Amino acid sequence: MRSPRQNLLAPLAVLGSIVSLCVGSSYAKSLFPVLGAPGLTAYRVGFAALMLVAFWRPWRVAITKKEAILIFAYGVILGLMNLSFYMAIRTLPMGIAIAIEFTGPLALAILSSRRAIDFLWIACAAIGLVLLLPIHHETKPLDPVGLCFISAAAIFWALYIIFGQKAGTAHAGQVTSLGMLTAAFVVVPFGVAHAGAALFVPHLIVLGLAVAFLSSAIPYSLEMFALKRLPKQTFGILLSTEPAVGAISGWLILGETLTTLQMLAIACIIAASIGSTATIKREDTPQIAQADPVVP
Hints:
The protein has 296 residues and is an all-alpha fold. The protein has one domain. The chain is built from 11 helices and no strands. The protein has helices spanning 4-30, 32-56, 65-88, 94-113, 118-132, 144-166, 172-195, 202-227, 232-239, 242-254, 260-279. It starts with a helix and ends in a 17-residue tail after the last helix.
C-alpha cells in the first residue's frame, strides 16, 4: 500500500509537467523576435528527436511496412501540430491558444461516446468558443490568422490521437522516437527557411536546447512517471487545467492579460474537458488523458 506521500507524487508530477510545458512555450514565444515561430519549432522538435533517438535507439527493433506507414503519418501530424501551435501563439495569448487547441481531443472524446451527458460538455465548450469570438465590445478581437493556425492545431491534435493509437502496436519508445524524427524532417526545413543561419548561432542553440528541455524532455519524463501511477481518468482531469496554467504563464512571463470574458471562456472549455473526462466510461476511447499534447 502506498503512503500518502507516494500518492501525492503522481498528481504533482502531472502538474509539474504542465507548468514546465507552459513555461517552456512562453519562453519560446519570448524568443520569436529572434528566430520566429518556425525557428523555435525546429529547435524544439529537432532537439527532442535527437534526445529520443539517442535514448530509445529505435533501429534495434524491426518494424513491419504497415507500422512504418502509420509511424510516418503519426510523425507528420506531430510535426504539423507543433508548427501550427507555435504559429498560433505568435498572435494569440497562451491561455486562449491552449484552450482552443483542447477542443480537438475534446470533440474526439465526445463524438466517440455519444451519451446524453456529452451534450452538456458540448454546450460548455461551445459557450467558451462563442465568448472568444470578436462580437463583444469589451473584448479585443483575436487575430484571425492565429485562430486559423490554432484551429488547425486542434484538428492535428485529434488526428495525432487517432494515428498514435493505430501506431501503438509497435514499441512505444520506437513509435515516439521515430515519430518525432519524422516530425523533425517536416518542421526543420520551415525553421531553416525562416531563420536561416541564425539557427546555428551557438548561444541561440543553447536557448533552443532550453526550450526543448522545458517543453519536451521534462514534461514527457514527468508524465511517464505519472501515467504508471494514476488512472487515465485522473490524469485527464489534471491535464485539463493546462489552459489555466498557460494563461498564468503567459501573464507572468509575457505580460499577456485577458479580459473577464476571455477568462470565463477558458473556464468553460476547462469545465467541458474535466466533465468529459470525469464521466467517460472505461470502454469509451479515445480519452482526453490519451490526448496529451506534450510531445517529447
